[in-house]
Amino acid sequence: MSTIIALETTDVRFPTSKSLDGSDAMNTDPDYSAAYVRIRTDAVDGLTGHGFTFTIGRGNDVQAAAIEALADRLVGRNAEEVLADMGATWRGFVYDSPLRWLGPEKGVMHMAIGAVVNALWDLKAKRAGQPLWQLLAGMSPEEIVSLVDFRYLTDALTPDDALAILKRAQPGRSEREAALLDSGYPAYTTTPGWLGYDDAKLTRLSREAVAAGFTQIKLKVGNDPDEDNRRLRLAREAVGPDIRIAVDANQRWDVGQAIEWINGLAEFDLAWVEEPTSPDDVLGHAAIARGIAPVPVATGEHMSNRVMFKQFLQADALQVMQIDSARVAGINENIAALLLAAKFGVRVCPHAGGVGLCEAVQHLSMFDYVAVSGQLDGRMIEYVDHLHEHFVTPVRIENGNYVTPTAPGAGTEMLPDSIDAYTFRPDGIA
Amino acid sequence: MSTIIALETTDVRFPTSKSLDGSDAMNTDPDYSAAYVRIRTDAVDGLTGHGFTFTIGRGNDVQAAAIEALADRLVGRNAEEVLADMGATWRGFVYDSPLRWLGPEKGVMHMAIGAVVNALWDLKAKRAGQPLWQLLAGMSPEEIVSLVDFRYLTDALTPDDALAILKRAQPGRSEREAALLDSGYPAYTTTPGWLGYDDAKLTRLSREAVAAGFTQIKLKVGNDPDEDNRRLRLAREAVGPDIRIAVDANQRWDVGQAIEWINGLAEFDLAWVEEPTSPDDVLGHAAIARGIAPVPVATGEHMSNRVMFKQFLQADALQVMQIDSARVAGINENIAALLLAAKFGVRVCPHAGGVGLCEAVQHLSMFDYVAVSGQLDGRMIEYVDHLHEHFVTPVRIENGNYVTPTAPGAGTEMLPDSIDAYTFRPDGIA
């Protein structure tokens, strides 16, 4: 028996704006940052749980303050109890009415809950001696259902529906787990496509992506249609006809504008168009999807909660669902998203990049493959080659695939030296 | 010429949970609170701008920290420039990409922007020597359009649409202004209906509401159908057949459950059902509206931004729109909501109560009546008799109507003694 004795929060910021890594039509000069949390217990194993919210710089202190505000919900509690029933633990945070008022279930406070929930999952997986994907994939359908909050979902997905989906995937779990450990999970790369990169860098990185075994790349678009046309032509020339090219507008357009803009890029045979407009606009995305078919609409990285995922699926407003490990209230809510996608037969291609998002989200895709959808039908995890060196178990890519992690935990632990070196100090004094 | 020299934030909390004022099915023991902001300039007039986000207790410190994070966007700037083009000022906050990432346009950071924007409007109205409603209603249609951000709205409302709506309302502005100053604006009351009140208090307060001239009351529901039935019967007996009774579930139900529950209360001839489910669920509300017709669906107090209001109107998911003065990004975004409602021909009955929400939101309804919809067709502002004594210009109700305010400002200024007496001190030391 052990007690949770501390929830430590750190404001970590990397000066990525200097190189324009991560620059897009909405976010022109981000400093990739993490509002980072470490959970400690008094157990003799010395294991700690790590989680974070990803932000792009200013305001990371507010996000850290929100995580800090959750400390009194957790510190002093029995660690085994908290970790044994993660469904109840999740509801304990999300149903807390004063904290819920600050969203509800969206924005800074909801993401703070996600960071803490993910840190608890990291601790739980370390205690189990398993990578998180394997811990989840080893649970019974009933245990998995108990992790999910079905409030506001039952018009689209009931606990019985979820149980049926999970039971359908039970045969073949071990074969798929073996396949994962053998070959990894498909990836695509956004590395070549940032808006701030010049033509030479775009061409060089596109060629390198193909050489590295990727079968899809992604370009940022949305500042200027002629410029997008030119850059897509360069990229297509660089990668040849057999590599898929997706584009990402980062919420830059209104509905009518999105349809017109994308139809103007029809010749490039786009793999998908990502975030064409506001992530809140279910009906807008549905109109865009109808207006640009057969080009698929992809979105999800800024979708605030399971209620939004539900509606996008109900309205046929996305054809590619892009979960993010650090936007919703953690692993539990992302499991709800995976179950919804399975119910509606939509493929999941997670958003990653940022700080540690690749390390974190791979566990969800791998769990999905083994125990939920059982499918790889066009599914891929985004890959960007930023900042992996700051993590204890950085992702590895081989032949365009994520190498399946085997180290215990959720992948979310940052190196102590990196945390210390990049802790934000407003007064500039180290 | 003057400079903004300070943005001061205070965590103000009232111990309302002791009396169960404000108790409902989701929020059982709120401590009504305000993350409060004062903006000071070095002008010789000594005028200050006041705004706030309303919360229900714990986490109010996080909300205050978010407001504080906006100080460096404002302090040191020329006050006249900031106040002269409030559309540009609004976009300066909302388009700021690192802050936007923390929503986008929702939750703690978006509400923080709302508090600061509203404080600037308070200052602008004080400098003009006018109550805010009158300042807004005196602007030209073009000036009003310039306050609104149409990003993500143009599939439902264009600047030209807005201009046409405002020009249509120009004739009769002065007659309606005179009528407002003469008779005030209709109100309804939620005072009798909190879930934590016993039967005697419910009956007594319902009778008092009728005696005070209100023609509609509202009851909280959603914990237990039999109990709701019993309390509605008591209220109906107390108020007689001619007073409308609305109910408010505070997001308590799933879609199917909402339809069943409300249809079980059909005999009470409900004026509307408010917040039947998640405020994010456009499609769910649309299904509920179809399932309980002709009972109208009312919602909006937790709707995070103009994109959500747009969709609820497009989907016929609400029949009564309930704007809130402190949930979206301030006056500007609420003007977008009013214009959307006018475009779709839906009546607006604002949410109020809390801390200072009545004082603030009345200005929007009165502006709407004079310069936007030009209508009173079933429009009413919620009234709850809590905490008005802490404001410099508390609302007054006569014959069931809000008395139209004439004091300069936005109504958002709290008394210095109240701020001081209720400043939250975690260590308990005054």
UniProtKB/TrEMBL annotation, chains A, B:
InterPro entries: Enolase-like_C_sf (IPR036849), Enolase-like_N (IPR029017), Enolase_C-like (IPR029065), L-fuconate_dehydratase (IPR034610), Mandel_Rmase/mucon_lact_enz_CS (IPR018110), Mandelate_racemase_C (IPR013342), Mandelate_racemase_N_dom (IPR013341), RHMD-like (IPR046945). Its cofactor is Mg(2+). Pfam families: MR_MLE_C, MR_MLE_N. Signal peptide: none annotated. GO terms for biological process: amino acid catabolic process; carbohydrate catabolic process. It comes from the Bacteria. Residues 199-295 form the Mandelate racemase/muconate lactonizing enzyme C-terminal domain. Keywords: Lyase, Magnesium, Metal-binding. It catalyses: L-fuconate = 2-dehydro-3-deoxy-L-fuconate + H2O. This is L-fuconate dehydratase. It comes from Spelaeicoccus albus. The lineage of its organism: Bacteria, Bacillati, Actinomycetota, Actinomycetes, Micrococcales.
